[in-house]
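Title: Comparing notes on inverse folding

I've been comparing how different people in this forum approach sequence design from structure. To keep things fair, I'm posting one structure and asking everyone to reply with a full sequence. Here's the target:
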C-alpha cells in the first residue's frame, strides 16, 4: 500500500461518491412499484432495499471484472483518467435525478470512462468488442425482453386470479411483490455495486497498488456495498415518483409481474458478466406490465423523455469525462480545478432540487400529463355503467310541468 498516492485516494473517494449517487438514483428500480401500489411504506421499502443491496454486493465479481479488465486497456490508464470518468458519471446522475428521469448509472459510468480514456490514450485503448457485446447489445435487448416477459406475466396473473377471492388474491400479490422487490434489490447489488468495485480496482491497478488482472480486494467490495446501500436508503424520491406513478398506473398483480421479470433478467446478466442497466430492465418491465392489464395504458410522453435520456447518457457522460481529462492532464492544479467544479456543480444541483421537494410524504403524488396517446385510448374506452347513467341523467332534460301560480288564478266571479 506504499504506492497509495493522494490522487489515488481522491479517485477512491470520488468512486464511492458515485456509488452513493448510484444508490439513490436507482432505488426506484427495486421499490418504485412496491411503493406506488402500497405494498410497503416508502421508508420501510428503501430500508429493505438498502440491506439487500449490501448483501448482493458480496455475491459475485463478474461485472466488476468486466469494468476493470475488459472495457478499456488498463495498462495505459492513469488514476486521473478514472477521476475524470467519475466526474462525468456523477454529474449526469445528478442532472437526471433533478429532472426525475430514470437514466442508467451504469452507462453514465462507462460513458465517462470511455470519453476520458479516448482523451488520454486514443480510440485504441477502448475494447470495442466488449463495448458492443457486453454493454450496447444488452442495453437494447434487456428492456424489450423484460417488457414482453412482464406483459405476459401480468396477463397470466390476471387469468389465474380471475376466479380467486379478490381481497385474498390482492393480499397474495402484494406479498409476492414484496418478495420480488427484494429480489430486484439483491440483483441490483450484484450488478451495480460491482461497477464501482471495478472502477476502484482499475484505479488501483493504474496506481500500481494491485497487480493487473486482480479481482477486487475485500475492502473494495465492502466499501462499495456500504456506499450504494447508504445511497439507496436516502431514497431517490423524484425518480421513484416517475417510475411508480408517472410512467403507468400499476395494480399489485402488475407490480408482482414487473418485479419478477426484472429480477430474473438482472440476475441472469450478472451471472454472465453483462454490465446491464437495471434502469432499462425495470423501466421495460414496468411498461410491459402496464400494457398487460386490459385497459391499462403507458404515458408515452414520459417514456419518450426517458428514451431520450437513455440515448444521451453514454455520449453526454463521455463528453464531460473527456473534458475533465483534458483539464486534469494539465497537472495537479488541473485536477484541483476539476474537483472544485464537481463539488460546486453538485451543490448547485442540490440547491435547485430544494425548490420543489419530493420525499417519502409526497412520492405518490403526480401531476404527470396524460399525453396524446393515453388521452386517445381513454377516449375510446367504455366508461363504467354508473358514469353512463349519470351522464344520461344530466343530458336528458326533466319533463316540463306547467304550474299556474296563485297570482295568475282568475278571481272568482262576483254577483
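Reply #1:
Here's my take.
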Amino acid at each position: 500500500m506504499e504506492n497509495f498516492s493522494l490522487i489515488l485516494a481522491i479517485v477512491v473517494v470520488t468512486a464511492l461518491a458515485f456509488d452513493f449517487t448510484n444508490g439513490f438514483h436507482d432505488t426506484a428500480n427495486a421499490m418504485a412499484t412496491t411503493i406506488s401500489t402500497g405494498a410497503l411504506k416508502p421508508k420501510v421499502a428503501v430500508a429493505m432495499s438498502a440491506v439487500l443491496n449490501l448483501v448482493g454486493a458480496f455475491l459475485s465479481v463478474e461485472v466488476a471484472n468486466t469494468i476493470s479488465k475488459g472495457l478499456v486497456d488498463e495498462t495505459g490508464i492513469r488514476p486521473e483518467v478514472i477521476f475524470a470518468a467519475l466526474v462525468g458519471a456523477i454529474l449526469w446522475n445528478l442532472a437526471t435525478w433533478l429532472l426525475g428521469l430514470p437514466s442508467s448509472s451504469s452507462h453514465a459510468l462507462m460513458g465517462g470512462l470511455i470519453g476520458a480514456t479516448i482523451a488520454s490514450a486514443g480510440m485504441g485503448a477502448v475494447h470495442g468488442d466488449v463495448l458492443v457485446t457486453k454493454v450496447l447489445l444488452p442495453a437494447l435487448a434487456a428492456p424489450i425482453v423484460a417488457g414482453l416477459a412482464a406483459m405476459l406475466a401480468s396477463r397470466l396473473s390476471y387469468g389465474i386470479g380471475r376466479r380467486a377471492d379478490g381481497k385474498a388474491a390482492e393480499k397474495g400479490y402484494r406479498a409476492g411483490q414484496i418478495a420480488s422487490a427484494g429480489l430486484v434489490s439483491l440483483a441490483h447489488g450484484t450488478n451495480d455495486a460491482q461497477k464501482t468495485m471495478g472502477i476502484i480496482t482499475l484505479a488501483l491497478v493504474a496506481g500500481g497498488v494491485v497487480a493487473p488482472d486482480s479481482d477486487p480486494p475485500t475492502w473494495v467490495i465492502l466499501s462499495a456495498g456500504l456506499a450504494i446501500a447508504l445511497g439507496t436508503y436516502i431514497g431517490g424520491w423524484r425518480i421513484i415518483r416517475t417510475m411508480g406513478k408517472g410512467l403507468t398506473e400499476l395494480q399489485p398483480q402488475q407490480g408482482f409481474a414487473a418485479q419478477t421479470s426484472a429480477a430474473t433478467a438482472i440476475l441472469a446478466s450478472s451471472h454472465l458478466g453483462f454490465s446491464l442497466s437495471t434502469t432499462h430492465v425495470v423501466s421495460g418491465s414496468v411498461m410491459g406490465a402496464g400494457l398487460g392489464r386490459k385497459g391499462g395504458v403507458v404515458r408515452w410522453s414520459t417514456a419518450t423523455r426517458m428514451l431520450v435520456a437513455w440515448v444521451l447518457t453514454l455520449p453526454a457522460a463521455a463528453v464531460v469525462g473527456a473534458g475533465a481529462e483534458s483539464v486534469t492532464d494539465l497537472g495537479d492544479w488541473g485536477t484541483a480545478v476539476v474537483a472544485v467544479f464537481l463539488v460546486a456543480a453538485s451543490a448547485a444541483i442540490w440547491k435547485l432540487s430544494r425548490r420543489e421537494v419530493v420525499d417519502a410524504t409526497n412520492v405518490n403524488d403526480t401531476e404527470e400529463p396524460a399525453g396524446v396517446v393515453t388521452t386517445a385510448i381513454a377516449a375510446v374506452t367504455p366508461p363504467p355503467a354508473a358514469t353512463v347513467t349519470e351522464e344520461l341523467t344530466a343530458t336528458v332534460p326533466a319533463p316540463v310541468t306547467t304550474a299556474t301560480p296563485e297570482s295568475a288564478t282568475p278571481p272568482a266571479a262576483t254577483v
